[in-house]
């Protein structure tokens, strides 16, 4: 690791001030960033840990909208969402392993926007609002491609507001070594209709499968997806699976998610 | 350099560390608590598992500065002061839950974390909880058996000795 100064502010305001320094980098739970630093793929001059900022931790249900602090770790989301939003609890409770879930945060995951991370599918699949220190961003505008988001330099995710859908399910086909999603599909049925968000598959990161949404809006049953498929073009192709294989999984997992959402 | 203060196995320590000092380096090199092992150094093997404020973490993937003010438990704090093993450690010995022993500190700390939240886990829950801890000797069966035994459950039907 290159050397850097380490700061650990206790308020969002102090963190924003610290991040205004040249070559400053925010540190969420560090479960991606620390391995990246070890590989010398990042060389910040100042690392600003967000882990001591209590005001961005915790989960509450505000009249049907789950308000999750950006600094809330996966284990705490899994515990807090268990009764109100079990599909989200299942997603959070199966990220990485128990130690990763103790440190990794929802804000860190969404800020990084790994194309195979689980949380982006929940944010896009629920039509969540990403709240930062300066503004609110709709999930549909937030994700802008692999490792790319609408966040500006030094902007911090303080909360994520997720409307709790009437029905929801997340099905992940796990890459067994990393436990990232080879493909993951988050399906919801709510007041504004059906949303199908797919992670792990596309080279552009998380995306909505709108064709499936149209079909499921007509009939929220796995059979409504018969005959629908996505193209393997533009899908991630690596040693774990070809683009065509991932495309195939998208259709299979979407059906499974709809079946699970229907209980 | 910055000063960090934390309570490690009940004892308060204060040290001056560089910003990029990992928690596992702090434990092993500053405090000479070498029971916390570095296996992969890439957050996959779990040999460096410790507890920070009661939560299971990988000490290779956390900075010492992030534990400032925290309560930390390591494998060295698990046995009684007279050396009597705790229930989990004793069960690992009784059920041959280790061979070379390199992964064992992490396995014991992971097991302690599981049993704190879930005192009577099923075999499937034990295996799910151990997903971040890799063992290359045992094939896991006797580790799972030891943890089930430590929880006070009958293990006669689980795997083979």
TrEMBL record, chain A:
Using the record's annotation, list all stretches that form the FAD-binding PCMH-type domain.
Answer: 1-167
Give the EC number(s) under which this enzyme is classified: 1.2.99.2
* One MF annotation (Gene Ontology) recorded for this entry: FAD binding
Query: Domain of life of the organism in this record?
Result: Bacteria
Please tell me which top-level EC class this enzyme sits in. Answer: oxidoreductase
**Keyword terms:** FAD, Flavoprotein, Oxidoreductase
Task: Report if keyword Methyltransferase is assigned.
Answer: no
Output this protein's name.
Answer: Carbon monoxide dehydrogenase medium chain
UniProt source species: Tropicibacter naphthalenivorans
Q: What is the lineage of its organism?
A: Bacteria, Pseudomonadati, Pseudomonadota, Alphaproteobacteria, Rhodobacterales
Gene (name only): coxM_1
From TrEMBL, chain B:
Record-annotated 2Fe-2S ferredoxin-type domain positions: 2-78
Tell me the Pfam families matching this sequence.
Fer2 (PF00111), Fer2_2 (PF01799)
Which InterPro entries does the record cross-reference, listed alphabetically? Answer: 2Fe-2S-bd, 2Fe-2S-bd_dom_sf, 2Fe-2S_ferredoxin-like_sf, 2Fe-2S_ferredoxin-type, Beta-grasp_dom_sf, Diverse_Oxidoreductases
- One GO MF term, please? 2 iron, 2 sulfur cluster binding
For this UniProt record, the keywords arranged alphabetically read as follows: 2Fe-2S, Iron, Iron-sulfur, Metal-binding, Oxidoreductase
Q: What is its EC number?
A: 1.2.99.2
**Full protein name:** Carbon monoxide dehydrogenase small chain
Q: Which organism is it from?
A: Tropicibacter naphthalenivorans
């Amino acid at each position: 690791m290159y050397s850097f100064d380490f700061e650990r502010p206790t308020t969002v305001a102090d963190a924003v001030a610290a991040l205004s320094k040249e070559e400053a980098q925010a540190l969420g739970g560090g479960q991606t960033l620390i391995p990246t630093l070890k590989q010398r793929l990042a060389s910040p001059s100042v690392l600003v840990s967000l882990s001591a900022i209590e005001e961005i931790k915790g989960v509450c249900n505000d009249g049907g909208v789950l308000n999750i602090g950006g600094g809330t770790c996966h284990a705490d989301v899994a515990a807090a969402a268990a009764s109100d939003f079990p599909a989200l609890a299942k997603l959070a409770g199966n990220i990485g392993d128990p130690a990763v879930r103790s440190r990794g945060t929802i804000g860190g995951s969404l800020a990084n926007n790994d194309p195979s991370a689980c949380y982006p599918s929940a944010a896009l699949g629920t039509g969540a609002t990403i709240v930062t220190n300066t503004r609110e961003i709709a999930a549909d505008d937030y994700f802008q491609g692999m490792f790319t988001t609408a966040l500006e330099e030094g902007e911090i995710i303080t909360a994520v507001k997720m409307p709790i859908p009437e029905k929801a399910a997340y099905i992940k086909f796990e890459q067994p070594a990393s436990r990232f999603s080879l493909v993951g599909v988050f399906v919801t049925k709510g007041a504004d209709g059906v949303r199908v968000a797919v992670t792990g598959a596309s080279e552009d990161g998380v995306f909505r499968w709108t064709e499936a949404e149209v079909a499921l809006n007509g009939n929220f049953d796995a059979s409504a997806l018969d005959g629908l498929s996505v193209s393997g073009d533009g899908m991630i192709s690596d040693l774990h699976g070809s683009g065509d294989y991932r495309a195939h999984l998208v259709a299979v997992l979407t059906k499974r998610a709809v079946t699970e959402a229907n209980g | 350099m910055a000063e960090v203060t934390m309570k490690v196995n009940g004892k308060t320590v204060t040290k001056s560390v560089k910003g990029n000092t990992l928690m596992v380096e702090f434990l092993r090199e500053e405090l000479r608590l070498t029971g916390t092992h570095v296996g992969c150094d890439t957050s996959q093997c779990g040999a460096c598992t410790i507890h920070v404020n009661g939560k299971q973490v990988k000490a290779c993937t956390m900075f010492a500065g992030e534990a400032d003010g925290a309560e930390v438990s390591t494998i060295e704090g698990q046995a009684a002061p007279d050396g009597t093993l705790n229930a989990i450690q004793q069960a690992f010995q009784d059920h041959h839950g280790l061979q070379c022993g390199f992964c064992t500190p992490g396995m014991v700390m992971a097991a302690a974390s599981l049993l704190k939240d879930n005192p009577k886990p099923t075999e499937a829950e034990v295996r799910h909880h151990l997903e971040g801890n890799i063992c290359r000797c045992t094939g896991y069966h006797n580790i799972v058996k030891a943890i089930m035994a430590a929880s006070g459950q009958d293990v006669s039907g689980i795997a083979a000795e």
